[in-house]
Design a protein that fits this description.
By secondary structure, the chain is α+β, with helices and mostly antiparallel strands. It has two helices and seven strands. The longest helix is centred in the middle third of the chain and has 13 residues.
């Protein structure tokens, strides 16, 4: 059986990244990149656009693939292929409250002050230093 697949969105708003506070599961009450798993037969690109829309109520536009990483630490005993995409978020927020409690905009300067889930601090530090 292959690795599990998950997508993550780096949603850019005025040079900062929009993060969601997780309502359940691993990382509950911590901020994280929004995303989720592709549905049967769905591409990772379509999955991330759908997930952002479902969880935040906004459109994820100008989406570009940034990188893929193997995550073997977030869920003990499971291997996850994580696909990261970046783009712009458009529209008014309409949070799916059973998944996202709140949102925050994070820049390189306030990244150390935010309680982040998983390895998302490392990911965002790398993204900000790449300055794509």
């Amino acid at each position: 059986m292959g690795n599990k697949v998950v997508t993550r969105a780096i949603i850019l708003v005025d040079g900062k990244v929009l993060l969601g506070k997780r309502a359940r599961g691993r990382g509950v009450n911590q901020y994280a990149l929004v995303g989720g798993k592709p549905e049967e037969g769905e591409s990772v690109e379509n999955a991330i656009v759908r997930e952002v829309n479902e969880e935040l109520g906004i459109l994820f536009n100008d989406v570009k693939f940034w990188k893929k990483e193997l995550d073997k630490d977030s869920v003990p005993g499971e291997l996850w292929d994580v696909y990261y995409f970046y783009g712009k978020g458009n529209g008014g927020l309409n949070l799916k409250k059973d998944e996202i409690l709140d949102t925050i905009l994070v820049g390189k300067e306030n990244l150390p002050d935010i309680d982040l889930a998983f390895d998302h601090r490392k990911i965002l530090e790398e993204f900000f230093s790449d300055a794509v």
